[in-house]
Amino acid sequence: MKRSYLILAGLFVLAVLGGYLFSSGRLNVNLDQYAPPMPGGDFTLQSHKGPVKLSDFRGKVVLIYFGYTYCPDVCPTSLALTSAALKQLNDSELAEIQTLFVSVDPARDTSERLNEYASFFHPNVLGLTGNKSEIDDITKRFGAYYRIPDNVTGENYAVEHSSQTIVVDKGGKIQAVIPHGTAPEAMLLTIREYF
How far apart are CA 94 and CA 116, in angstroms? Predict the structure, then answer.
């Protein structure tokens, strides 16, 4: 399975390089565009080690990305860009950040599968899952979107989902939204504002 992740990552090197070319500078995403505003707030989901709360990471900047492990292109691209940004942080900076990959496909994404998938991109990425009502609540509160097709049969289906990264400050408040395809350098300019 890790080999398929390596192949996917290799295919997205071009996307990463394209992000470098097309995105630079400070991100200026206006949170007022979300109506009603994203309230955020605490939540509890399952990791491969057991329950995890967002509040467990108070004192750290938290990056939250909603996706799923069977995603063919968008999620691997976003996680590859995030990983490239994380790799540019020094050890003391890395200790001040936590990245959460929240699955919007709980029927297929077990906590074990999420751990293998997320840690492939970077050890700082923690995969989380929950039941549908928990995911519905959290995505709504954090301005994310997903839709699983009606009448799904079998394991072969795609999930529509938003692809932004939410930046939560050390006090647990949503501060910024990083759009899909943002270059690692631009991500770092935003993230470092909240250290």
Answer: 20
Radius of gyration of the chain from its Cα atoms, rounded to whole angstroms = 16
Q: CA 5, CA 17: separation in Å to the nearest integer?
A: 18
Give backbone dihedrals phi and psi of 125, rounded to 5 degrees, phi first: -90, 120
Q: Which domains does the chain have, with CATH numbers?
A: 2-194 (3.40.30.10)
pTM equals 0.84
pLDDT tens, residue by residue, 18-45: 444 344 444 545 565 555 679 999 999 9
Interatomic CA distance for residues 25 and 11, integer angstroms? 26
Distance (Å, rounded) from C-alpha 153 to C-alpha 5? Answer: 25
Q: Among 154, 155, 176, 151, which Cα is nearest to 165's?
A: 176
Q: Which amino acid is at 157?
A: Y
Query: How far apart (Å, rounded) are the C-alpha atoms in residues 60 and 57?
Result: 6
Parallel/antiparallel/unpaired status of strands 97-103 and 125-128: parallel
Q: Which two tokens stand for residue 104?
A: 């919007």
**Is 67 in contact with 82 (CB distance < 8 Å)?**
no
